[in-house]
Amino acid sequence: QVQLVESGGGLVQAGGSLRLSCAASGLIFRINFMGWYRQAPGKQRELVAAITSGGATNYADSAKGRFIISRDNVKMYLQMNSLKPEDTAVYYCTEKIVTLGGGEMDYWGKGTLVTVSS
To answer: Phi-psi category of 53—alpha, beta or left, where left has phi over 0 and alpha has psi -120 to 50?
Structure first.
């Protein structure tokens, strides 16, 4: 089975930075898509940043210019700079993964909490 685990969340002051990581484990043949979503209290989950297997990236307007999504052979990352209180949310990683002996499916981590204080 495939499992995604986020890490790097925590408490940070406005203007500070955090780096989130997402580690995938399991019988993974190929990862076609990676992304970060967030869900703030009382709001729906929204896409923050995404990256394809080819390296193309896309950002929400609120994240553009402040956040950077990246990946290597081990993990996916979200570098968050110039954080604002409105960035406070639970951040989730998601990946479209082709498993060994199976087809492509979407997988989600259980989230990591980011709290930005003023």
So the answer is: alpha
Distance, in Å, from the CA atom of 94 to the CA atom of 29, rounded to the nearest integer, reads: 16
d(CA 54, CA 32) in angstroms, rounded, equals 8
Instruction: Please answer whether residues 1 and 100 qualify as being in contact, where contact means their C-beta atoms are separated by less than 8 angstroms.
Output: no
Give the tens place of pLDDT for each residue, 14-46.
999 999 999 999 999 999 999 999 999 999 999
- Mean pLDDT value of segment 71-79: 92
Q: CA 98, CA 31: separation in Å to the nearest integer?
A: 6
Residue 64's contacts (CB-CB under 8 Å, 6 or more residues apart) are none
Q: How far apart are CA 89 and CA 41, in angstroms?
A: 7
Q: Which residue has the tokens 């989230």?
A: 111
